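To whoever is on call:

I kicked off a structure prediction for a single chain this morning and the downstream step that reads the tokens threw a length-mismatch warning. I double-checked the sequence; it's 991 residues and nothing unusual in it as far as I can see. Pasting both halves so you can look.
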Amino acid sequence: MAVQRLGFTELSGGKERTGPFKVNIIFVHGLRGNPQHTWEGSRVSPADAAPGEKKRRWLTFFMSNDNTAGGSSTTSESSSFVSSGTIFWPDEYLTEDIPEARVWTYGYNADAIGGMFQPNNQNSISQHGRDFAVELNREIDNELPILFVAHSLGGIITKDAMRRSKGLHSRTSLIVFLGTPHRGSAYAEWGQIASNLASLGLQDSNKKRVQTLEVNSEILDNIHEQFKTIVFESSIRIHSFQEARGISGMKGLHNKVVDDFRSKLDLPEAIETVESIDANHMQMARCSDRKDPQYRKIIGVLKKRLRNMASQGDGVEARQEDILTAPNMIGGSAPDTSNATEPCHYIPLPNNKRFVGRQKILKKLKDSLFVNESPKVAVVGLGGVGKTQVALQVAHWTKENKPEYSVFWVPALSDASFEQSCAAIATKLGVSKTEDEEDPRKIVQRYLSSEAAGKWLLVVDNADDAELLFGLSDKPGGFSKYLPSSHNGVTLFTTRSREVAVSVAGIDVVDLSEMDSEEAKRFWGDSLTRKELLRDEALTTVLLEKLTYLPLAITQAAAYINTKQLPIAEYLELLNGTEKDIAGLMSREFVDSSRYRGSQNAVATTWLVSFDQIRKSDDAAAKLLDFISCIEPKGIPQSLLPEFESTEELVNAIGTLRAYAFLNRRGDSKVFDMHSLVHLAARIWIQREGRIPTVLEGATRDLATVFPIGAKHEDRHLWREYLPHAFKILQQGKELETEHNARLRQAVGCCLQVEGRIKEAVMYLEQAFQWANTHLTGERPLRLAFMHALAGAYESDGQIKKAVELLEQVVTITKRVQAEDHPNRLAYMHALAGAYKSDGQIKKAVELLEQVVTITKRVLAKDHPNRLASMHALAGAYKSDGQIKKAVELLEQVVTITNRVLAKDHPNRLASMHVLAGAYKSDGQIKKAVELLEQVVTITNRVLAEDHPDRLASLHNLAVCYYNLPCSPFDNFKQKVGVLFCASQSVHLLT
């Protein structure tokens, strides 16, 4: 019959087949294969083959090519193959022996060597899998179950198609693999040799696909792992045939093309049967006679599958039933279970009918426990995130879907709860105390570790306390020593502690985070008694975001709203209220039947036990938790955190908080976030213990210690990150009368002044000065520093008289107690001169600044910032005094130096350029003024806020200079007017 080279061909055995049909059987060839030739056996004995034929076979050891007599490879849609010397057994034998099956063969271009001058199809394996899935769904025009028979690479194509088409999952009942390299072939390099030989003949070769067959290929590993999951979830039966012989007659090849390890999926015996065929990789798919061992084995597997389907139905449930009773080998019998223990279940918590979502996590856990058969798996996550509920779903699912498994549940809340659960399990199992052993923990451990127990799942819930689990360093033990171990058993732990998770499960740790928005909405809807509340989707979205999609918080909110009959808007008002309101709301206990009786269900209290465990085991982490409770929970730079004795101690403390999921790192940065509800709970914990004043004082001291002093430009990236946290601490510590509190207020005020937030700066600096006035004597340096800073803010705020008054006091004191060239004395004189200038007392300003400049020139280097600042200020005073030439001369010196030593966007450099431009304007050098101001405006527009006074001042002065330029073309005039208009719109911000 005519077999299509590409796509599907239905086989009929040369007869008209009318059915009725019950199943599809689809054959898929392998690398270098063909939809007909792959499955053809010779009618002649292999021993009679000509020597030339044997020699030719080594080049195409995966399968023979479909060359025509002319030697060219055909890629036509269909071609008729007539060979009286071969048996195409799926067509000639199988259609007769299984008349109820529609038999198909599928072809695709899988040549490692194309025909001469025929470009090879460059599709990858994944592309072939995609095409196979699409064509199958289109061409197989029925809904009958499917049995696949796949050789070599064809098995990988079939697996890839399965993961791309969910429709195939439910239709597929059996897959027979013949020498499929599930994890790569150790001898794919022979295919590479063939490709290299082909290239000598100007033939194209698909090297990408040959590389895919290398051992441990990432592509194959991905397909392999995903396919195993599909098999388990869809209850698909697998029969893996392995080649018993290597390739003979090929020099250097002593092993099988696909070795035994790589030709099986390594699934449980109830799902996969592994069997050998006494043939090499090529011959295992070729049958010459119905009596051939390979034909008898393959058709035996297919018929056995059909018998099971006929006796049990052909649905998913039937396949699950069959997997539980499947024989280990074709022709064998089901395992003897007469002596097996009847499965037993002890799950003290009911199945949660309101459970929604979490499908990816559940799938991952089921795969780990029952497909990969990991002996121990741990779910780790924040308290209240739903670990117990996820474990409960796994436990009840196992009870309902895996009847061969016993399921047991023990809470690890305390020694007593563990022992009580073991006693209940012993009673359920019917294993009683003996004279030699009365401890129920040991009785259960011994029994579950024995073969008599059969298969079991043990859930150890709330294994949060490492001390309870493992004991102390000087007193080892803990109840982990009572946990059973058996190749028939798997254990699932839930814990808040990553340290515990890794200790018990190694790499088999599954992270559980908050719900996604859709899961949270479904859960919220199922939790409300008044469904009409769901109509306001906008409010629901805001509320769930506020609750951070945390299941426990959602449950608590629903319980409160259900009980109090509140609208969502009113509950949101409470959440947005004072910290006291929020704390009261989040601390309110409620009844939840899906949680342990007597457990703390309120969001704010659920983490208290974890906080206590941290304090007991890690002093540094407890100190860090105290500190973070006083600052903002988000955007916490590591450099802001308190100083410890060593960096290692800090890193370890951070690690402890991260292990409990209390602290999360932003990518690879050194910036951290704390869950907002955990942050609230930590504050409630501290408040309940009466430690708020002590903790707040310590946090203020720690932050004041690391906060940059003087609002220096080079530190701006730090203090900008620190400011939100300083605001948070200072807001809480309004009544805190300590030096560190005052120092922090002074530092924050200086930063705000630089940022142009003058009113706020004055407020913080006044608070700092008030403390200094009360607690410090007149000559104390700290008091003088606070007065100096406040005077600067007053001047920026236009309160010039106050600035002059403060600075005159400071200068008078420093002249009495400090040397003439003391840096602080010079700085205060400089500041007073500036205030005089702002107050219109220009002569006093000039006189004072000339003294300062004279001294700084004597004691400081030419490029010292203080010397340049004094020259800058004196030039400004000269300009105000009408001494324009002196001002220009001095400022040109300053600008020359600052252009050399400061960054382009440094405030001091920009200020000097700005003032020099003003001097040029006053001197009639308008073009020079415009040139400088254009540079300044370009930079300030980039680095300063739109309403920053310095940016607006530069823009205003540039507009004025444009306006004063000589007559220019109309376009320039429009530009000048436009800039002036922009400046005029914001001029009120300058006053």
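Update from on-call: the warning came from a stale cache, not from the record. Cleared it. Sanity check on the structure: The mean pLDDT is 81.
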